[in-house]
Amino acid sequence: MRHQFYGGTAGRDAARILGGMSGRKSSEPPAESGASQAERSLTFMIGAVGGVSLLAFVGLLIANFAGVHPDGSGIWPMLVLLPYVGFPITILLIVVLAVLNARRRAQQDRKNPR
């Protein structure tokens, strides 16, 4: 009886893992994941802009609790304005992503009705 982990496919599985995680050749088209490149890019943009804005906001809170008051010189003006600009941009990007996702799902439902 062959054990499922030590069967005849162990060598091929190891080669596939070492050769690349996808197991496909570069000439083959990528598997359809459902999300477009625009949706993936928007998701990373949301994370980056929202994350930087959140870090700036937390930095301002820590500076305020430590007794440091922004005086308008150095990095403080940018650190103060970053959350004011970054959070609304993040919300707009989330709305755009939701619209793109809804359009894609509606298009998929029209192609493959249940």
Description:
- This protein is an all-alpha fold and 114 residues long.
- The chain has a domain at 33-111.
- It contains three helices and no strands.
- It has helices at 10-19, 37-65, 76-111.
- Helix 2 packs antiparallel against helix 3 (76-111).
- The longest helix has 36 residues, at 76-111.
- The mean pLDDT is 81.
Write a compact overview of the structure shown.
The protein is mostly helical and 114 residues long.
Output the keywords.
about 110 residues, mainly alpha, 3 helices, rod-shaped
Percent strand equals under 5%
Terminal CA distance: 43 Å
Low-confidence stretches: none
- Nearest-integer average pLDDT: 81
- Total of DSSP H or I helical runs spanning 4+ residues: 3
Proportion of residues in helical segments: 55-70%
Secondary structure elements and their pairing?
Blueprint: H1 10-19, H2 37-65, H3 76-111
Helix pairs in contact: 2-3
